[in-house]
Amino acid sequence: MNETMICAVGNVATAPVFRDLANGASVRFRLAATARYWDRDKSAWTDGHTNFFTVWANRQLATNVSGSLTVGDPVIVQGRLKVRTDLREGQSWMSADIDAVAIGHDLARGTSAFRRVNRTETVASAPRPEPNWETPAGESADQDAEQRPEPAGVS
User: Fold this and answer.
1) How far apart are CA 17 and CA 65, in angstroms?
2) Residues in CB range of 146: below 8 A, 6 or more apart
3) Where in the chain does DSSP place strands (E)?
4) CB 3.0 to 4.6 Å from 126: which of 53, 82, 113, 153, for a disulfide?
5) pTM of the predicted model over 0.85
6) Looking at the record, which segments are called Disordered (predicted)?
């Protein structure tokens, strides 16, 4: 439970790579997060150091990311930080990965149109009627319930 949760704001640096694995969908992409600061001498904004993260998303999040993100999109990523060290060809390498919990477009820098995904239900349930929220004046909710047909399969 002592995992490091972070929120990184940046741009998608590489095209998301989608893989459909035995234990579910997975996608990864690189995130470039550049610090900006106001340079008083130049009276202008200046780019600072750029941090690169490999972002990993799984299951439904992976599927949604692969259909929503492209290179250059401004995004906000929240997830668990994993810093790894590796020895490659005699040199020590460090990488910072984010196991994403949530990913979204940065609406401070543009607009986005949300589309809900239709999930296929594993258990078929009987259709439920919509409740009648508009009870005419003078009628009680009990009278309204008596007038509604009972859903099929319920006894």
Assistant:
1) 10
2) none
3) 5-12, 17-21, 24-39, 44-58, 74-88, 91-105
4) 153
5) no
6) 119-155
